[in-house]
Amino acid sequence: MTDDPTGHGDPTGPTGPKRRGRPSRTAAPTGPDARTRILEAARTEFAERGYDKTSVRGIAKAAGVDSALVHHYFGTKDEVFAAAIELSFEPALVIPAVLGDGTDGLGERLARYFIGVWENPASRAPLLAVMRSALTHEAAAKVLRGFVLRRLLERVAEALDVPDATFRAELAASHMLGIAMLRYVIRAEPLASADPEKIIEMVAPTLQRYLTES
């Protein structure tokens, strides 16, 4: 019988796969707990091994589930990768806060959010993986384009009442990704050791100009 966390059963759902990985003492092999464990394991695996050396089997082993369950929830390795990156950004929570009540201060809010994500060690690790992998692997670059440029910045662009809003959002993205590359990946000094508040203070006006000035 398939475990059902709702207690109601799902007569149309697929039969849960038999788990062959290391069992968890506290969580069932299906349901939200398993999905969360898979995502957390994926973030760790991609961060430590990079995109190329990470496998669905390795993620499943780290999460204590069968690899079929990873495919059930996320499909391909690329889709697991995208979901792991989304876990770092949490766009559903962040976009309303970044947009706020209007475009005043948008550049600062965007810069503060972006730098804040990179300054957090938990979210920085998978982002380092995607930045490094995107330079050499098209699948990783596709995830970066699809998530950062589409799911995040196009949402911002939709709120802008200016010509070429999407182009402007991509210019803002290029500025922020350049900072991420130099500060966190290459670790170029003095940028790598600069106070985050100083970076936000200097970058925010440029982002504001990209996004709002006609």
What's the helix count?
10
What does the largest sheet look like? Answer: none
Helix content: 55-70%
The CATH architecture category of the largest domain equals Orthogonal Bundle
CA radius of gyration:
20 Å
Protein name: Transcriptional regulator, TetR family
Pfam families: TetR_C_16 (PF17920), TetR_N (PF00440)
GO molecular function: DNA-binding transcription factor activity; transcription cis-regulatory region binding
Keywords: DNA-binding
Provide structural commentary:
With 214 residues, this protein is an all-alpha fold. It has two domains: 1-84, Homeodomain-like (Arc Repressor Mutant, subunit A, Orthogonal Bundle), CATH 1.10.10.60; 90-212, Tetracycline Repressor, domain 2. The protein is 69% helix and 0% strand. It has helices spanning 32-53, 56-63, 67-74, 77-89, 91-99, 106-119, 121-134, 138-158, 165-185, 196-212. α4 crosses α8 and α8 (138-158) packs across α9 (165-185). The longest helix is centred in the N-terminal third of the chain and has 22 residues, at 32-53.
